[in-house]
Amino acid sequence: MNEFHSSIGKRLIVWIALTSFVLHFIWENLHASLYAEYDYFMKSIYFLGCTLGDVMLTFIIYGLVAAVLKDRFWIRNFNFKSLPVVVIMAGVVSFIAEWVAIELDFWSYNEKMPIVPLLGVGLSPFLAIVINNTLSFLLASKIVVPKKK
């Protein structure tokens, strides 16, 4: 097993999880007022559970990108070629996760939440998954993956 698969691979997992958690935790707190359950969110640790769910989605997206690119370690070469795949996979996962959550009454939006046309899901949670996960992958790759010489 080479160095990337062991030491760097483990560090990537940690950094992806850490950056994803921090970005999603901040976003969850900033957009909580767009939900009907705002008071409940702010008086509980419900948003912490949502954040942990978002981190799980991060790794699902990573796996989907790996499958599409046929490279489990695609992040070592994260570039403009892989970026569209990341954004598309994140968009698909985001839509499915948010649609399921709304359909199962996990939460609901208030009148302040902008809705994505045609998809019928909230714009803020949709963008949270797309933007935060893309940034998590980018940051983790820049922090952990050695630069090519």
Domain count, please report it: 1
> If you average the pLDDT, what whole number results?
88
Taking the alpha carbons of the first and last residues, their distance comes to 22 Å
**Range of helix content:** 55-70%
**How is the biggest beta sheet arranged?**
none
For this entry, what is the oligomeric state of its chains? single chain
Low-confidence stretches: none
- Overall outline: globular
Strand content: under 5%
The DSSP helix count reads: 5
- Helix and strand content put the structural class at mainly alpha
Radius of gyration: 16 Å
Question: Would you give an account of this structure?
Answer:
Helices cover 67% and strands 0% of the residues. The protein has 5 helices and no strands. It is globular. Keywords: Membrane, Transmembrane, Transmembrane helix. The chain crosses the membrane at residues 12-30, 45-69, 81-102, 114-140. This is PreQ0 transporter.
The gist of it:
The chain has about 150 residues and is mostly helical. It contains 5 helices and no strands.
